[in-house]
Design a protein that fits this description.
The complex is a heterodimer of chains A (278) and B (638). Chain A has 278 residues and is α/β, with parallel strands linked by helices. Chain A has ten helices and eight strands. Chain A is globular. Helices cover 15% and strands 32% of the residues of chain B. The chains are: A alpha/beta (278), B alpha+beta (638).
Chain lengths: 278, 638
């Protein structure tokens, strides 16, 4: 007997993890002006004031609603200040829902020059009021429907005048990683797909057009063990797939929480930005 | 280094109302008393040869207790005296159709002969085989066959026996569909994980090759399997009496059961290994109490059973429900009894459902208490033992706990190696006679020991086993296994030993560990710390758990063998005792020596049965033979 209970990060960790996130953000995104952050390091309250963070980071943030098959879903949208047509990223949250770390990552993409849209996939069952509600909703929504909702987000971004419609990518974390890969198998216009600690679909590789990048944790065996098979299958199908395994880190190394690893997260972030900007 | 912490547990007395928490289920009628009719007979083949080692079983019509014996070297069998009444009697041997009879036992004795018809039908033969026989019969003639045999054995036989799979035949596409499904099954619970769950890496990586291999072995065409049957029992093994108690499946759809029992309970070999659907799987550890009744844990979801007592006289089962999650009973796993006759079990599953608690039940009052784990600990897990001072030891996700039933204090010990290549949860546990704790890390091939006085832990890393596919394994294979890690209990690498459960000799200086994948029984000397490996003659029998009798003999349950085995450390010889039922998924073994006669107790996880085995001496059997001859002579004279 052995039950495996996996949490993708923890919502309520204290500043130590947060500090790590800050360090890598500072190191990788010189555009950030983090004075506001640094003055509020004492607790995980920084993201309670995202508007101020966004202001500091030279990005505009808003919450939008978009249509998916006649249903309105919520999404967090962050754009670089200054307008113009920018590449875009759909940020797909993990099984903790669209929480503050995911909004933070979304703003960081905007600060790096992307229009970044983070759909709240749990909002299909109504806007979650608590993290617990979001996590519960995530277990109740069909995986196929979440992919449908992401395709709708892709369509939404295609119509956004601030977006270069030929450069819309996805980045999925954990639970969202499979969904990022799934979009690559079902949206031919997708520019790039990044998978953080996510499963690989078992079929549909022949439909993939976008290059795919995998960022995997060494101590995430069930997920990471599939990297070789994924690489072989993608290459056999003539597709572009690259992956990295980050040593001695766990599944949710990318996000604030007990499994966060600053060095690995920083390196994965750098590789992700390079990949998306190619 | 070990971290040693002291905690004080808060005991929550939950079970007070017997009427609220205890439900009785069980035998439809009282079984026969152990007196009465002497049932004997002889078994021959259809070619006229006397057949030794044939399993002969008798079950009273409408009863829940089956008694089985084995034919001796002259093909004769002798049951212990059975109560008068109507019985179904059947004789089974691999390679033969079963002989069946309905007898009405009355008077002093009854003689029933059988003639077994041999069968050349491969499908019939195969259906009767144990998991060990399937694995032994898979050929190793080519590099690809060796590689695939290893991959199959390592990947597909940790949660269930190989016969569960290989009794079926599919074409390549069919096997691929099975692998697609199984690659998405959640480890432990067995539920389908969903489209978005990562599949088992090894299963997916080798899927095409494995499907082709399985279709070669068990496909629509002629099989490449080279059938090698296990010899039938002789000598001491053929003197065994096995009493099997059928346990009702309380959570099943009643319309899909055989009057409340599994539709296939494995007693008819021609039906093959039971599917274990409809709640017939879940019975886990079993242990006799001071009154000779047998207690058992239930590890699968149940609305009724946390821990249960089987009245071995009546066959009646009394269930105790400890509230778990969502109206379910809290599931349990490990079970043992302390010197005062108190039952101790580990509660598993989610913490909010009581997972991690220790459960104490007093059979005298049928009341229970639960003891939550110390703060910060994952709590009790799979296995449990009691040391010579009455302290309760249990495995945890990171090491072991020791609980003092008098002070309710916990001590926690951590495994020295936890994160070098995976979490490394503990699986088996034993407290040696000095009071020190030992536990296994099945995924990491480690056995750990803690000195309770100093709190210092020490680990023993078992050497890798030889792989059948050594010389065939490529760098890509190695990389796959490296990335796939060893986190998953029921997935093994090419070289894994898989130290699973263990037992201490409470009257000696030894603890014994069963290597599930490696097929070893490993001796750890508790004073010199020297280790000695004893390979089981058919290592694919999968030794799972060990228990030591007062003569220092080690009793091991062989999961793939549907059998138990005795190892005599003095002679270093094994004796294997086949059990009468197929596909039983043995996961635990306990002994009862209080009556002066050694009794071996095992639960059939897949079949909802409990077996009690004892071995007759030559003298006892001879006395029975004399009685039978006398009765026969008397009957002839009349």
């Amino acid at each position: 007997m052995k039950a495996i209970f996996r949490r993708e990060g923890c919502l309520d960790e204290c500043g130590c993890a947060r500090r790590g996130m800050l360090k890598f953000a500072l190191a990788t995104l010189g555009v950030f002006a983090f004075t506001g952050y640094l003055s509020r390091l004492s607790a995980w309250t920084a993201a309670a004031n995202p508007a101020q963070d966004a202001q500091s980071a030279n990005v505009d943030v808003t919450t939008v609603q978009y249509d998916s098959g006649g249903l309105n879903l919520d999404a967090y949208l962050a754009k670089p200040k200054g307008g113009g047509r920018n590449p875009a990223v759909i940020v797909i949250h993990d099984n903790q829902g669209l929480n503050d770390p995911m909004r933070d990552v979304t703003r960081q993409f905007a600060a790096a020059g992307f229009v970044a849209m983070a759909p709240d996939l749990a909002s299909r069952l109504g806007p979650p009021k608590t993290p617990g509600q979001a996590m519960q909703a995530i277990t109740q929504i069909s995986p196929t429907l979440t992919v449908q909702d992401l395709r709708a987000a892709f369509a939404y971004l295609q119509k956004d005048p601030d977006v270069d419609p030929t450069k819309i990518s996805t980045v999925g974390f954990g639970w969202g990683g499979w969904r990022s890969f799934m979009l690559a198998t079902s949206v031919p216009e997708l520019y790039r797909a990044v998978v953080y600690s996510g499963a690989t679909p078992t079929q549909g590789f022949e439909n993939v057009h976008a290059p795919v990048l995998g960022n995997y944790a060494q101590f995430d065996f069930r997920v990471t063990g599939n990297a070789i098979w994924t690489e072989k299958t993608m290459h056999d199908a003539g597709k572009n797939f690259t992956y990295y395994v980050y040593p001695s880190v766990y599944h949710a190394f990318y996000s604030a929480g007990p499994q966060y690893n600053a060095d690995a997260a920083k390196l994965a972030w750098t590789r992700t930005l390079e990949f998306l900007k190619k | 280094m070990a971290s040693m912490k002291r905690f004080r547990a808060v005991a929550m007395i939950v079970g007070v109302g017997l009427g609220m928490a205890i439900f009785a289920t069980g035998a439809r009628t009282a079984p026969p008393q152990q007196s009465g009719v002497l049932l004997t007979g002889a078994v021959k083949s259809d070619s006229g040869e006397k057949m030794a080692g044939v399993t002969v079983s008798a079950k009273g019509v409408g009863q829940t207790i089956t008694t089985s014996v084995f034919t001796d070297e002259t093909g004769d069998f002798y049951f212990p005296r059975l109560a008068a009444g109507k019985y179904r009697v059947w004789a089974q041997a691999e390679g033969f159709d079963a002989g069946r009879a309905e007898v009405d036992l009355e008077g002093a004795s009854h003689h029933q002969d059988f003639v077994l018809k041999s069968t050349k039908d491969v499908d019939k033969q195969v259906k009767q085989m144990t998991g060990q026989e399937y694995i032994t019969s898979l050929p190793e003639d080519t590099p690809q066959h060796r590689l695939m045999k290893d991959v199959f054995y390592n990947t597909c036989t940790g949660c269930h026996e190989p016969n569960y799979i290989l009794q079926n035949r599919f074409d390549e596409k069919g096997w691929e569909a099975i692998l697609n499904l199984m690659s998405k099954v959640q480890n432990g619970g067995g539920e389908y994980g969903g489209l978005d769950q990562a599949p088992f890496p090894v299963m997916v990586y080798y899927k095409k090759q494995l499907a082709a291999y399985l279709a070669e072995m068990r496909g629509p065409g002629p099989s490449l399997m080279q059938i090698k049957l296990r010899p039938r029992p002789t000598g001491e093994a053929a003197r065994a009496i096995v009493t099997e108690y059928s346990i009702p499946v309380v959570d099943a759809d009643p319309l899909a059961t055989n009057d409340g029992f599994p539709t296939n309970d494995g007693t008819d070999w021609s039906l093959g290994t039971p599917s274990a659907l409809n709640s017939s799987r879940g019975l886990h550890d079993s242990q006799t109490d001071m009154n000779g009744n047998i207690w058992f844990t239930t590890s699968e979801p149940s609305f009724v059973r946390t821990i249960s007592m089987l009245d071995t006289k009546s066959g009646k089962v009394t269930n105790i429900k400890v509230p778990g999650m969502n109206g379910l009973a809290a599931p349990t796993h490990g079970l043992t009894m302390d010197q005062k006759g108190i039952m101790w079990a580990t509660v598993i599953g989610a913490p909010e459902g009581g997972g991690g608690n220790l459960l104490r039940v007093d059979p005298a009052t049928m009341k229970y208490e639960v003891f939550p784990p110390p703060k910060g600990s994952t709590g009790a897990g799979t296995s449990i033992d009691v040391d010579t001072k009455g302290n309760v030891w249990a495995t945890t996700a990171s090491g072991a706990l020791r609980f003092d039933p008098n002070t309710h204090e916990y001590k926690e010990f951590k495994s020295p190696t936890l994160t070098d290549n995976g979490p490394g949860g503990s699986y088996g546990i034993a407290a040696d006679r000095l009071g020190n704790g030992w536990w296994t890390q099945i995924n990491m091939d480690r056995v750990n020991r803690v000195d309770v006085e100093t709190g210092k832990t020490q680990e023993f890393k078992e050497p890798p086993r030889a792989a059948r596919a050594d010389g065939v394994i490529t760098e890509a294979d190695r990389k796959l296994y490296e990335l796939a890690g060893v986190e998953l209990t029921d997935f093994s690498g090419f070289w894994s030993q898989g130290p699973r459960r263990m037992g201490a000799d409470k009257n000696g200086d030894v603890v014994w560990v069963c290597d599930y994948w490696g097929g070893n029984l490993v001796k750890y000397d508790i004073r010199t710390l020297k280790t000695t490996f004893y390979k089981y003659p058919t290592p694919e029998s999968a030794p799972y758990d060990a228990s030591v009798d007062k003569n220092h003999n080690v009793w091991v349950n062989l999961t793939n063998g549907d059998s138990v085995a005795k190892f005599d450390p003095k002679t270093e010889k094994w004796i294997e005792y086949p059990l009468p039922t197929r596909g039983i998924d043995l996961r635990h073994i306990s002994l009862d020596e209080r009556s002066g006669t050694l009794q071996i107790i095992v639960g059939y996880t897949r079949n909802s049965m409990i077996a009690r085995m004892q071995v007759r001496t030559k003298e006892e059997l001879q006395a029975l033979k004399v009685q039978a001859r006398d009765l026969l002579a008397r009957a002839s004279a009349q």
